């Protein structure tokens, strides 16, 4: 097995490669289509009729297809008298002949995938077709859109909200949209939503709209038929000529065309679609370890009775439904009664609503159907946890996507027992959908109480799934990084689950190399590759490689034994020493994840070091990476964190300069025990180093213990006349501190004297820890003066000038065969310089290592000049000591003197004025080299042509180069040759045959000894050459220099400040004595370090380890400054021009929506008021009718049945099961009984109305009781209610006269009757009369 193969297997085993084998070995398109066709033929079938029997028309079978569409075996003779056509027996399955890709043409050339499938195709096969063959990612949500199949009108605002919300929920959650797939009704609206929003957005490829349609009703379906598949099939949407058929919608992405072998029958796909939805809802959401299944939601627009059945069945299966109020018909009917109690949803109310929303279609509905629908609507309302009504109103500004997701969460909340499991399921759904807004409003409420440990799984899922908003939300709601990342195994798992990136590839190589380096023991079989092979040690090694070898490992390796022997206290201490925010920040940075890194950076304790370390890591990865785009992103993120570091440090420096400078040089235990300043230098963060706070620190180090306010001339005078330091001529830093403390104490005493109150500051100043500093002693002042890097630098300049002066004297005056004392002193001086260069090379206080230190040494231009000058001097010295090469040695030494003089420019780097100019000179030198290449083309071109024209066969190489290169070069500077012009030509200035080595060869001459070359040509060539060389190219060089100056001028100050650090550090570590006396210091260092083996002296100016308490206090203060910086950054962003433009645009949109809403709701408000007035009139009429009926004591009353409806709903009654639409525990439909038609006295065993005149209450007036009567005629759905009146009247009263008149007018319908205990009466009547007798103290 090859190394590359091993590495790829390893990457896959570490769970860091998400690519499939097909991505590694891409197959040809024709092969893929052939394999797809083979799979379709093996797994997908269609249905066709195998027995032709004429139907209504002679040439059309009962299956709906024409006779010509049948196979020959299906057509029987005309005298065939066998069996008749049966749909179950005469339609069989055959391999499908319609599949592939469909192209709709037109604008945009929309394409999709389709397949003709049988009605009994298993949902497993269809799901495999969608995910494996059509390469769809498994959904996180299934949205089943149903409703009106005919075109209907949607108001503009509702239409826009539906389109926007549907696409938003599909994009954010990764949902599949399932519809009927035809270009009509609600399916058309879904297609328009996909077209209007998905195709115009950057996420257009993520919208999946699957149409499940009936094959037999598709118009122009013949274009889709091809037994080998169509790639692609050109489908024509001919809506005008489709007739009763339907065209496919061109905005859907996939089509499942369900075939039952018939043509023209709608609704064939309903059963298969239902089974597919149920199967998908049983699949695991995300990975198999998840306990969640894919949620399904039904969205309803418009619709008729069939849609009502769909809603009812969906809710019985536990599928939540979202109904859009205002979309029309059955959706509006349900929306109107959704908030009412079930007892108020009466048949009369449903009649009214159906008539209102269905219009003329209402007249075709039979009464029994309406009763059935009323019962279904009542049952739907009872399942309120599955029903969500989306209302577009003035006080409701929600979106459809929010309503859909809230419906699912509401279902989840009520489907399980209230508690943590319910909340966890909702949170899992929200994370899978990546909808943090839903989690904020629906999950993290006051009702839910979360512990940090309860949310660890969610935090891990949000991090691995790259959901930064959820990470922030979880941190805000109680997740503790200390608890979450306490175990390194969690962090290791995060690295294993990291998405494919440059760091992961490098980590895989490191793990692979470490695996190969381990040799398995003899007889032991090596373990197979597994995810356990990755460890934090590998991560630590790779991060250290990116940060630099000068850092310590961030995750030190620890053996298993060590872990076993650690106590709980030790373990907690080790966790405390870790910055868990750093761990998360580093994990996000190495994968170049800006959003997660930003969140984690806010959790870091040492935020400045973290930002600078991120800049270093990202720039290193960008340098090593091969992908240009990825490298550009890394560089951009590195600059972003450099700005963060600058912002926080500026905030710190403005608050407290002394603390801010401590932050720069303190050893950071969280980032490899290095410093912020070192990280900034290694990351090449010039802008950070160029800050005033950093430069102030460098200036203080440069001046040493001397005050930074001392003028240079005073320092120079004190270098020579050092007794002046004992006066006030030169100020030391200690003197400034003492002076400030004295002034401060004087101010405190003044305040105490005036106020009479003892200040706390004076109490603190008297403590032993706050004692006043003592002035410097005489010896200390002298030591501090000459150990200052500034003074060392000035002495070295003086020494270097003296060295050059001695060198020049030796070369020009005293260069003898035998070295003179001055020359010997020069050699000693040079030896001291060599020793200093060696000391600089091996001096490594930062722990870079010799290899990196040597690389850094060579990368410095001044060090290159030092090495070059020393090498030339040594070679020249060797030549000079030999007699044969004595003069050559002097020449080399003279050249070496030039190099030493060039090295003198290094002294200007410390100057604020001349230092940046040195950088500009270096840039211009690079430009000049490229210009010289361009100039050399013209010089050589003109020189060779001129030499060839003038001189014939000159074999002297030196004169050839002189004529072809040197003379054309001199022409640029005005030295014109005399041999190109007849008037200036002199034959004495040249040699005829080229025999004189001091003269050039003469041009070709004529017989009269005059030049034979064409004068006009040489002059024209010279003019053209001067035109291009002198005018064009030289002005081009000036323009290049000007451009370089303008470009570099803005950055020279920043670059100079960055390079200033190395010069300051060099002279800070340099011995105080200048060359050649410095050799004594080198001798001391050699004896101390090499002979006595004493540890080197550690300086705290560049690297200072603080005590633990001071470290904690400093980091707490830094965190406070970071919060201030983030707050100021947010304020700047909110006040930026871009933000203001966005806010203005949002306000304009809001105003526009409000105007549209008011325009739409204006007419609606009037209609509602009229409807309310009409309802009040109807109620008044009913009340008057009731009064009239009571007065007339009519036997047959037409009161509205809903007047007698008991408004108290008893859900726990013993006959509740009688109200269900299906028999309990069964799917068999029973007699549809709405709530108002259920006998309140219980079941009687008889259904329907029986012998009574109507369903519900049948009013019967007997003679002191009102209500239900246990009559023998009662049924389950019809019963008797009686009103018993006991009226004692005088026979001569007017009422009796009226009653008698009524008896006469009714012609015997009413009559008086005397009753006694022996009268044949009903049981209820006897009981009523007994109660009347008791009222009058009579016996009955």
From TrEMBL:
Residues 113-338 form the TRPM SLOG domain. The keyword RNA-binding does not apply. Residues 793-1052 form the Ion transport domain. It holds the Pfam family TRPM2. It is a multi-pass membrane protein. Residues 442-691 form the TRPM-like domain. It comes from the Eukaryota. One of its GO terms (molecular function) is ligand-gated calcium channel activity. The chain crosses the membrane at residues 712-732, 793-812, 824-842, 862-879, 885-908, 928-945, 1016-1045. Keywords: Ion channel, Ion transport, Membrane, Transmembrane, Transmembrane helix, Transport. GO terms for cellular component: plasma membrane. The keyword Cytoplasm does not apply. It is found in: Membrane. This is Transient receptor potential cation channel, subfamily M, member 2. It comes from Dicentrarchus labrax. The lineage of its organism: Eukaryota, Metazoa, Chordata, Craniata, Vertebrata.
């Amino acid at each position: 097995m090859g190394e590359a193969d091993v590495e790829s297997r390893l990457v896959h085993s570490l769970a860091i490669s998400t690519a499939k084998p097909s991505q590694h070995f891409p197959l040809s398109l024709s092969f893929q289509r052939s394999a797809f066709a083979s799979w379709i033929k093996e797994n997908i079938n269609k249905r066709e009729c195998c027995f032709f029997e004429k139907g209504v028309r002679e040439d059309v079978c009962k299956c709906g297809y024409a006779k010509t569409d049948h196979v020959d075996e299906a057509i029987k003779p005309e005298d065939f008298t066998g069996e008749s056509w049966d749909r179950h027996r005469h339609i069989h399955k055959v391999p499908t002949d319609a599949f592939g890709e469909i192209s709709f043409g037109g604008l945009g050339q929309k394409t999709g995938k389709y397949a003709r499938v049988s009605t009994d195709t298993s949902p497993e096969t269809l799901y495999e077709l969608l995910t494996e063959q059509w390469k769809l990612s498994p959904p996180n949500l299934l949205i089943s859109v149903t409703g009106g199949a005919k075109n209907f009108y949607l108001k503009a605002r509702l239409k826009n909200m539906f389109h926007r919300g549907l696409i938003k929920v599909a994009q954010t959650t990764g949902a599949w949209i399932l519809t009927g797939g035809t270009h009509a009704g609600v399916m058309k609206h879904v297609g328009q939503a996909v077209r209007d929003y998905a195709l115009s957005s950057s996420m257009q490829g993520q919208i999946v709209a699957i149409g499940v349609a009936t094959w037999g009703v598709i118009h122009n379906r013949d274009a889709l038929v091809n037994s080998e598949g169509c790639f692609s099939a050109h489908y024509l949407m001919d809506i005008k000529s489709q007739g009763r058929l339907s065209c496919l919608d061109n905005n859907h992405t996939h089509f499942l065309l369900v075939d039952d072998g018939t043509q023209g029958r709608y609704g064939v796909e309903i059963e298969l679609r239902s089974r597919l939805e149920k199967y998908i809802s049983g699949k695991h959401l995300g990975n198999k370890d998840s306990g969640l299944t894919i949620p399904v939601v039904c969205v309803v627009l418009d619709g008729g009775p069939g849609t009502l059945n769909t809603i009812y069945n969906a809710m019985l299966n536990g599928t939540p439904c979202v109904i859009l109020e205002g979309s029309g018909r059955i959706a509006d009917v349900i929306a109107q009664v959704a908030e009412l109690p079930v007892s108020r949803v009466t048949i009369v109310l449903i009649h009214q609503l159906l008539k209102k929303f269905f219009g003329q279609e209402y007249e075709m509905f039979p009464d029994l159907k309406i009763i059935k629908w009323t019962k279904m609507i009542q049952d739907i309302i009872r399942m309120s946890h599955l029903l969500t009504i989306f209302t577009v109103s003035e006080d409701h500004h929600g979106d459809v996507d929010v309503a859909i997701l809230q419906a699912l969460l509401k279902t989840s909340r009520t489907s399980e027992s209230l508690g943590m499991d319910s909340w966890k399921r909702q949170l899992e759904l929200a994370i899978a959908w990546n909808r943090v807004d839903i989690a904020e409003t629906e999950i993290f409420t006051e009702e839910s109480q979360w512990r940090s440990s309860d949310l660890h799984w969610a935090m891990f899922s949000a991090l691995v799934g790259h959901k930064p908003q959820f990470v922030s939300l979880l941190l805000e709601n109680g997740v503790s990084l200390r608890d979450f990342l306490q175990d390194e195994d969690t962090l290791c798992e995060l690295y294993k689950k990291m998405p494919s990136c440059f760091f992961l590839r490098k980590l895989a190589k490191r793990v692979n190399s470490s695996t190969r380096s381990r040799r398995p023991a003899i007889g032991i079989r090596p373990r197979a590759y597994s995810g356990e092979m990755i460890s934090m040690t590998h991560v630590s090694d790779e991060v250290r490689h990116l940060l630099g070898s000068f850092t310590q490992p961030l995750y030190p390796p620890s053996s298993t034994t060590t872990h076993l022997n650690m106590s709980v206290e030790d373990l907690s201490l080790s966790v405390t020493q870790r910055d868990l925010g750093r761990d998360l920040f580093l994990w996000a940075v190495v994968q170049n994840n800006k959003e997660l890194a930003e969140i984690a950076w806010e959790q870091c304790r040492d935020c400045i070091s973290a930002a600078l370390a991120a800049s270093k890591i990202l720039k290193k990865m960008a340098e090593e990476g091969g992908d240009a785009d990825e490298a550009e992103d890394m560089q951009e993120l590195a600059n972003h964190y450099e700005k963060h570091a600058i912002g926080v440090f500026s905030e710190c420096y403005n608050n407290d300069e002394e603390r801010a400078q401590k932050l720069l040089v303190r050893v950071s235990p969280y980032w490899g025990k290095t410093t912020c300043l070192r990280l900034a230098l290694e990351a090449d963060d010039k802008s950070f180093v160029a800050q005033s706070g950093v430069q102030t620190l460098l200036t203080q180090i440069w001046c040493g213990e001397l005050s930074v306010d001392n003028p240079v001339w005073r320092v120079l005078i004190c270098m020579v006349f050092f007794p002046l330091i004992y006066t006030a001529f030169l100020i030391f830093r200690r003197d400034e501190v003492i002076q400030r403390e004295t002034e401060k104490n004087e101010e405190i005493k003044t305040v105490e004297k005036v106020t009479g109150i003892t200040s706390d500051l004076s109490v603190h100043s008297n403590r032993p820890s706050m004692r006043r500093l003592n002035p410097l002693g005489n010896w200390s002042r002298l030591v501090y003066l000459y150990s200052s890097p500034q003074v060392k630098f000035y002495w070295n300049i003086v020494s270097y000038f003296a060295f050059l002066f001695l060198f020049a004297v030796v070369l020009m005056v005293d260069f003898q065969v035998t070295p003179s004392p001055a020359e010997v002193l020069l050699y000693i001086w040079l030896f001291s310089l060599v020793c200093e260069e060696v000391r600089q090379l091996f001096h490594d206080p930062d722990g870079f290592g010799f290899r990196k230190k040597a690389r850094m040494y060579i990368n410095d231009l001044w060090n290159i000049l030092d090495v070059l000058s020393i090498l030339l001097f040594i070679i020249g010295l060797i030549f000079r000591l030999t007699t044969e090469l004595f003069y050559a040695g002097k020449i080399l030494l003279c050249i070496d003197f030039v190099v030493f003089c060039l090295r003198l420019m290094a002294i200007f780097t410390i100057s604020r004025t001349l230092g940046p100019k040195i950088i500009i000179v270096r840039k211009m030198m690079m430009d000049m080299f490229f210009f010289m290449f361009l100039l050399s083309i013209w010089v050589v071109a003109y020189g060779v042509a001129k030499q060839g024209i003038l001189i014939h066969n000159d074999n002297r190489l030196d004169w050839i180069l002189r004529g072809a290169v040197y003379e054309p070069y001199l022409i640029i500077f005005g030295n014109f040759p005399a041999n190109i012009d007849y008037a200036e030509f002199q034959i004495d200035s040249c040699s005829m045959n080229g025999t004189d080595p001091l003269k050039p060869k003469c041009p070709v001459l004529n017989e009269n000894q005059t030049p034979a070359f064409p004068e006009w040509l040489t002059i024209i060539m010279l003019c053209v050459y001067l035109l291009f060389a002198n005018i064009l190219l030289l002005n081009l060089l000036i323009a290049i220099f000007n451009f370089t100056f303008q470009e570099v001028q803005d950055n020279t100050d920043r670059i100079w400040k960055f390079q200033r650090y190395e010069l300051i550090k060099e002279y800070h570590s340099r011995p105080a004595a200048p060359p050649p006396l410095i050799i004594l210091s080198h001798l001391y260092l050699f004896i101390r370090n090499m002979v006595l083996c004493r540890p080197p002296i550690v300086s705290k100016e560049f690297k200072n380890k603080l005590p633990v308490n001071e470290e904690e206090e400093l980091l707490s203060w830094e965190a406070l400054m970071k919060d201030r910086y983030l707050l100021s950054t947010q304020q700047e962003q909110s006040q930026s021009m871009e933000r203001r433009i966005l806010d203005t645009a949002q306000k304009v949109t809001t105003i526009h929506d409000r105007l549209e809403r008011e325009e739409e709701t204006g007419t609606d408000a009037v209609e509602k008021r009229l409807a309310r007035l009409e309802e009040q009139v109807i109620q008044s009429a009913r009340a008057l009718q009731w009064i009239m009926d009571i007065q007339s004591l009519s036997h047959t009353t037409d009161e509205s049945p809903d007047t007698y409806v008991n408004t108290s709903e008893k859900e726990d009654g013993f006959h509740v099961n009688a109200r269900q639409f299906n028999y309990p525990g069964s799917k068999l439909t029973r007699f549809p009984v709405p709530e108002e038609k259920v006998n309140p006295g219980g079941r009687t065993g008889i259904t329907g109305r029986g012998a009574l005149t109507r369903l519900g209450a049948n009013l019967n007036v007997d003679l002191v009781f009102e209500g239900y009567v246990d009559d023998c005629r009662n049924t389950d759905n019809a019963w008797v209610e009686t009103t018993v009146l006991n009226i004692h009247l005088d026979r001569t009263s007017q009422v009796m006269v009226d009653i008698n008149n009524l008896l006469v007018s009714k012609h015997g319908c009413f009559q008086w009757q005397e009753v006694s205990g022996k009268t044949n009466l009903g049981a209820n009547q006897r009981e009523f009369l007994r109660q009347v007798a008791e009222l009058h103290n009579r016996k009955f």
